[in-house]
Description:
By secondary structure, chain A is α/β, with parallel strands linked by helices. Chain A has helices spanning 27-31, 74-81, 119-126, 167-177, 192-204, and strands spanning 3-14, 19-25, 38-42, 53-56, 59-61, 64-70, 87-94, 106-112, 131-138, 152-156, 163-164, 184-189, 208-212, 228-230, 237-239, 246-248. In chain A, strands 4-3-7-1-2-6-5 form a seven-stranded antiparallel β-sheet. In chain A, strands 11-10-9-8-12-13-16 form a seven-stranded mixed β-sheet, with helices on both faces. In chain A, strand 1 (3-14) and strand 2 form a beta hairpin. Chain A is globular. Chain B has helices spanning 79-91, 107-118, 139-142, 145-157, 174-183, 222-235, 249-258, 268-271, 275-289, 295-298, and strands spanning 8-10, 13-15, 19-21, 43-45, 62-65, 68-71, 97-102, 124-128, 163-166, 188-191, 195-198, 200-201, 206-207, 213-217, 240-243, 262-265. Chain B has an eight-stranded parallel β-barrel with strand order 3-4-7-8-9-10-15-16, surrounded by six helices. In chain B, strands 5-6-14-11 form a four-stranded antiparallel β-sheet, with no helix packed on it. A two-stranded antiparallel ribbon of chain B has the order 1-2. In chain B, helix 5 crosses helix 6 and helix 6 runs parallel beside helix 7. The two termini of chain B are 34 Å apart. The chains are: A alpha/beta, B alpha/beta. The A-B interface holds A 1-4, 42, 47-52, 89, 91, 215-219, 221-230, 236-237 and B 24-27, 31-32, 34-35, 47, 55-64, 66-69, 71, 73, 76, 218-220, 247, 267, 269-274.
Amino acid sequence: MMFQTFAQVIEKKILSDQIILVTFRSEELAKNAKPGQFVNVRVSESCYPYLRRPFSYCDVEGDTFKLMFTIFGQGTKILANAPIGSKFDVIGPLGNGFNLEDDYEHAIIVGGGLGIAPFPFFTRFLNEKKKIHSYIGARTKDFVVTYGLKNFQIATDDGSIGYHGNVVELLRMDLEKNTFYGKIKIFACGPTPMLKALKQLSEEFDVDCEVSTEESMACGFGICQGCPVELADSSGYKLVCKDGPVFNVKEIKL
Amino acid sequence: MSEINLKIRIGSLELKNPVLVASGTFGYGIETADFMDLNQLGGIITKSLSLKPRKGNPPKRIAETPSGMLNAIGLANIGVEKFIEEKLPLLKKIDTKIIVNIAASSVEEYVECVRILDKEDIDAFEINVSCPNVKEGGLEFGRDLSRVGEITNKVVASTNKPVIIKLTPNVTYISQFARVAKEEGATAVSAINTLVGMAVNVYTRKPKLSHITGGLSGPAIRPLALAKVFEIIQNVDIPVIGIGGITSFEDALEFLIVGAKAVQIGTHNFVDPSGPLKIINGLEEYLRKFNFKDINEVIGSLQLN
C-alpha cells in the first residue's frame, strides 16, 4: 500500500558542510517503510520546481522518518530551508527495499558518498539479527557521514581520513584476508563506478550482492516509465521506482 | 442542495464528468488505485499500445524543465495481446469509461490493433498519431495531412466505437488536421500531444535525454495548448478534448470555457496522483458557487468582446 499524505518537518540537523538530515512526522509513511524503500516529496505547491524529489528512507523511528541529502538544487534548497512545523505532500513507501531475510550471517554495507543514506534504517532494522560491517567511501573527510552506522571503516579518495583509496579496495582486502567467518551478503548504494567494481568483486568472491540504483524519475510508482534500468541479458528494461530501486547486481547492466 | 450535472457527451460516448486521465501518464489505469477512487474519473485513457510489445528508449528518458518536463519514453508497452489478458480485466472493474490509446508504426498496424481490441469491452479508441519519440509512425504521420486522413479513415472503418484522433501541436495549423480527422469520420480530436523540446547538460555538454529531443509537457505548455484548442474550435465543428499542463480546476475550466467538451490530466498525475479528483471536486464547487446547474452551460461560454 502506498500513501499520499502530509508529513511535518520536526527536526533538522546539519551533519557536515554538505549534508543535512531532516526528520518528518507521518505515521503511515514511517510505520509501513522497509529499508531500501523511498519517498517522493512535493517540494513546492507551485510549478517551479514542478516534479517531486525522491529520497530513500534514511532512518525510521516510531512515527517519524529521516531524509539525508546534500543541498544541490532548487528542490533540496527548499527542503533544507523549510521551517520546523511546515508540511510537505509526500508519497510513499515506494519501491521494493532490500531483501534482508536471506540466508547469511554477515551484512556488508557499502556506501559511497551520499549512498550511505539508506543504511541507518537498515542498521536499526537488522539490529542484532545479523552481524553488520559498514564500509563508507567518500571523496574527502568533509563528505564522510557515519550517522546511524555501526562497526564501520572509512576510505577516502584523498586519504584525509581512514584508508587512502576507494571503498571497494578496502572491502577487497578484508575479503582476501577472509576476516568474515560465515556467509556474507553485500548491500550497496553509491555512484555507478563503485557499483560496477562491486559487481566484479561479488562475482570474483561468489558473494550475493544487492545494489540500490538511481535514475531520474517523475512519478515514483511506475506510471511515467521514466526510470529504466537495463537487464543484464539485454532483453529489456525494468523500472527503478517500481521493480527496484534494489536489484541483485547480476540482474542488471551497470 | 440542488444536483449539479457534470455529465458530458462526445458523440455516443457519455462521460460522468469531463475529467479524463491522459495516455502515458496513468500507466494501464490501475497503478494509481492507492491514491484515489478511480470510479470517480470521467474516463481513463491507457498507455499507448502497439501490436507487439515495445521496450522503449534507454535512459535518460526524462528531464525536468521550467514548469514542466521532457520525456522520450519511446512508447514502452506490453502490446495489445498482453493488455487484453492482464490489464483489461482489472480495468473493467472500474466504473468509468475505458479509452484505449493506440500507437503504431504503419497504417496496417493501427487497423490490426483496432480490429483486435474492437471485440473487447472498451468504450472508445484514441489514436496517437503524434508521438515525438519514435522513429517510425508518430510525428512522421501526425505532420502529414494525407496520412492522418488515411489512418482516420481506415480506423473508423474497422470499428463502431468512437474514434478520437490525438493531434500534435508541432505543425503550423493544427485545425487543418482536425478538419481532416472530421472529414474522415473521427468522433473527436484530443489536443495537444507534447511539443518537441530539448535540453543540454552544460557540464557534460550532452543532451539531457538519450533520444536527444523529447516531448515537452506540464504547465509550461498550457497557454500554447489552449490557443491550439481555440484554433480548432474556431475553425472546425468537431468535439475537442483539451490537454496541456492542466493542474487545477481553474486550468481545466480555461479549456472548457474555450469550448473543449472534456479535458485530460497528464503530467500532473506524476506530481499529484490524486489531482484529477481534486479537479472534479473543484469543477463542481465552481458550478455551485456561480449558480450553474450544468457543466454544459460553461463549455464554450467564452466571452469575446
